[in-house]
Design brief:
With 226 residues, the chain is α/β, with parallel strands linked by helices. 39% of the residues lie in helices and 17% in strands.
Length: 226
């Protein structure tokens, strides 16, 4: 089985996803938010690329969620903080979500045979779900503004480890996947601290979202796999 990791949206060509299972990772915060919304009873999350698409896709009873450059979009009920997506707020409701990077990555992966949302929160269950499709796997790190983001790479490394531990056949990885596996293993003893000190971790903490970062660093908190 082949397992490739792509460092950012800028490196993702549509043909790479054909006939493969894709896992999109945006630890801070889109895929963590999607996972949390569904864990807390949302009836579904529709990920769209633009603000205009979000507004036109909205149906009666839907909630609009999303951000641009870490700030909630004007007129939307929710931002991109997973801690906003409580059962009281999203239970039984569909969320239409658009974010700066994560939902773009989901759209970029649309040609995959199967598409999963992965994060630190659900890594083990996400790996198990991906293996059930019995296809080669591609993990796309959403990154930030078309550049690599450390937290996504570390999560990809964890996913590679989870896949290797569960796969009944040897897995073959690309160089970046191998690098991220080694990076994750080195970072594991101080994972939260390292992510807190990453570029995105520092940025979010500075504008009041430190608890988001700490929450998103929790490994295997849930078995939900969008």
């Amino acid at each position: 089985m082949l397992v490739d990791v792509i460092s950012s949206i800028a490196e993702a060509r549509s043909d790479l996803f054909l006939n493969r299972t894709a896992i999109v990772v945006d630890v801070l915060r889109a895929t963590s938010t999607i996972i949390t919304a569904l864990e807390n009873g949302s009836s579904g999350v529709l990920a769209v690329e633009t603000v205009c698409q979000a507004k036109t896709s909205r149906q009666p009873g839907d909630l609009l969620g999303g951000e641009r450059f870490c700030k909630k979009i004007a007129g939307f009920e929710l931002g991109n903080s997973p801690l906003e997506y409580t059962e009281e707020v999203v239970g039984g409701k569909r969320v239409v979500l658009t974010t700066t990077n994560g939902t773009r990555a989901i759209q970029k992966s649309a040609k995959a045979a199967h598409l999963l949302a992965g994060a630190l929160l659900n890594s083990a269950s996400c790996a198990e779900a991906a293996l059930r499709f019995r296809r080669d796997i591609i993990i796309l790190c959403s990154g930030t503004q078309d550049e690599f983001a450390l937290e996504d790479g570390l999560c990809a490394g964890l996913l590679v480890e989870e896949l290797a531990n569960r796969c009944t056949e040897p897995i073959v990885v690309n160089d970046f996947a191998a690098a991220m596996l080694h990076a994750y293993r080195s970072a594991r003893p101080a994972l939260q601290e390292i992510i807190m000190q990453s570029s995105n971790g520092r940025k979010l903490a500075k504008i009041g979202f430190e608890e988001d970062v700490r929450y998103c660093c929790e490994v295997n908190r849930t078995s939900v796999v969008p």
